[in-house]
UniProtKB/TrEMBL annotation:
Protein name: Unannotated protein
Signal sequence range: none
Gene3D superfamilies: 3.30.530.20
Entries under Pfam families matching the protein: AHSA1
Family: Belongs to the AHA1 family.
Start and end residues of each Activator of Hsp90 ATPase homologue 1/2-like C-terminal domain: 13-141
Ranges annotated as spanning the membrane: none
InterPro entries: ASHA1/2-like_C, START-like_dom_sf
Source species of the chain: freshwater metagenome
């Protein structure tokens, strides 16, 4: 079994504001894609309840290729934790935990993913892709962010 992928980042706002950004399609689509990709608002389907859908498309800016993300919410602890399962991710199941913990006047966002291919675990490009989304979130909310 491969180890989990873990990345964290600090943002100068409350867990409640981060939760709102993740659960509001009009905000979510503005930040939740690495640099070079975007999430069309009309592709976001969020049902914030255990068993609810969390679906969206990431579109490559330069080619228009669409990467569909189809998840089911398996755990919620508002405003601190969301767990999604993508049952058909690259031939297996991906489980992604988004944790939002109050930290030093802001929020530490920690993403833990189980079920990624081993070559993605600790991959600097994958880590940077996540960090670029956190920086986008900071710009959307007009607050500072830091790698942590």
């Amino acid at each position: 079994m491969t180890p989990p992928f873990v990345v964290s980042h600090w943002i100068a706002t409350t867990p409640e504001k981060v939760w709102e950004a993740y659960t509001t399609p009009e905000i979510f689509h503005q930040f939740f894609a690495p640099d070079g990709l975007h999430v069309p608002l009309d592709s976001v389907n969020v049902e914030i309840r255990v068993g609810g859908r969390f679906d969206f498309n990431m579109v490559f800016d330069d080619t228009g290729v669409v990467n569909e993300n189809r998840g089911v919410i398996v755990e919620l602890q508002e405003p601190n934790k969301m767990v999604f399962s993508e049952p058909e991710f690259m031939g297996s199941e991906l489980r992604s935990t988004q944790a939002f913990d109050a930290d030093n006047g802001g929020t530490r966002i920690t993403v833990t993913q189980d079920g990624l291919p081993e070559e993605l675990i600790g991959n600097p490009e994958v880590i940077e892709a996540f960090r670029s989304t956190f920086r986008k979130l900071g710009r959307v909310l007009d607050v500072d962010t830091e790698n942590r």
